[in-house]
Design a protein that fits this description.
By secondary structure, the protein is of the alpha/beta class. The chain has one domain: TIM Barrel (Alpha-Beta Barrel). It has 11 helices and 9 strands. Strands 1-2-4-5-6-7-8-9 form an 8-stranded parallel beta barrel, surrounded by 6 helices. A hairpin with a 5-residue loop joins strand 2 and strand 3. It is globular, with a radius of gyration of 18 Å. The N terminus is likely disordered. The protein binds SN-glycerol-3-phosphate and calcium ion (CA). SN-glycerol-3-phosphate binds next to strand 2.
Length: 269
């Protein structure tokens, strides 16, 4: 492997399939989870939001236009915000055809359906709370779904779940509600602010574009809330060259739309 040893002490960075294996199957669908599994990728990333009637669903954008046929099915519901549609309405949408006809009929999964599939595939989940400021209470609600699915059981929680967000407040809330859950902050805080983040974040997950070796080392020097060095998972890295670069910086994980490419370049066996 081209990778340096990481804080976790393994061979190379953990490879995370971004929105599932989203270069090869429609993002954030069960098909993208399965595609990652077929490629032998253990970790998948997703984006969690909430419907008008309070169901948690998996979708990246705050509106349904790009990745579903909502405009066609509900022509008078501009601007097609996720939070303005019921779960039953969203369940009618086709979330696969935009990507390719082979995926026609793919659905926007509920969080529960998504977690079930990840579990069935023996995979692990990097769950992003997307725009949590739009969804008051989504932290508690997400933890409740995970608890119902058995994902917060003591023997499971540490091994297969990280909750991340661009909102520090949101992951601080997750940490306070359920300290056993590992958390990640999406962004690049100033090094002088890392002591504060180390109180509630196990990971600092920056865009790969501005990442340096000295920043990764600075993060590793802090101990996270679970008594281990804070980790760095970089996104979104889709070429072998970029993967080698960030692996050389010492990152612990790489979040990628092309998990096979990254795994073959630098990933753990
Ligand atoms: O997991 C990191 C990455 O997903 C953050 O950006 O916009 O793809 O959710 P975004
Ligand atoms: Ca995301």
């Amino acid at each position: 492997s081209h990778a340096r040893a990481t804080a976790a002490g393994d061979d190379g960075p953990t490879v995370v399939a971004h929105r599932g294996a989203s270069a090869y199957a429609p993002e954030n669908t069960l098909a993208a989870v399965d595609k990652a599994a077929e490629l032998g990728i253990r970790w998948v990333e997703n984006d969690v939001q909430r419907t008008r009637d309070g169901e948690l669903v998996v979708l990246h954008d705050d509106n349904l236009r790009r990745t579903t046929d909502a405009e066609e099915v509900f022509p008078d519901r501009s601007p097609w915000k996720v939070k303005d549609f019921t779960a039953a309405e969203i369940a009618r949408l086709d979330a696969g055809s935009w990507f390719g006809s082979a995926y026609a009929g793919a659905r926007v999964p509920t969080l529960e359906q998504y977690v079930d599939r990840v579990e069935r595939n023996h995979q692990k989940l990097l769950l992003e709370l997307k725009s949590p400021e739009s969804y008051p209470g989504i932290e508690q609600q997400t933890l409740k779904v995970l608890a119902n699915e058995g994902w917060l059981d003591r023997r499971h929680v540490a091994g297969r779940l990280v909750v991340q967000s661009f909102s520090a407040d949101s992951i601080r809330t997750v940490h306070e509600l359920k300290p056993a859950v590992k958390t990640g902050y999406l962004g690049t805080p100033a090094v002088s602010d890392l002591p504060e983040y180390a109180e509630f974040a196990d990971q600092i997950n920056p865009s790969h574009t501005s990442l340096t070796m000295s920043y990764v080392s600075a993060v590793h020097a802090f101990t996270g809330p679970h008594g281990r060095p804070m980790e760095v998972f970089a996104w979104t890295v889709d070429t072998a060259a970029a993967a080698r670069l960030v692996a050389g910086h010492g990152v612990d994980g790489i979040i990628t739309n092309k998990p096979d490419v990254v795994r073959d370049a630098v990933g753990e066996d």
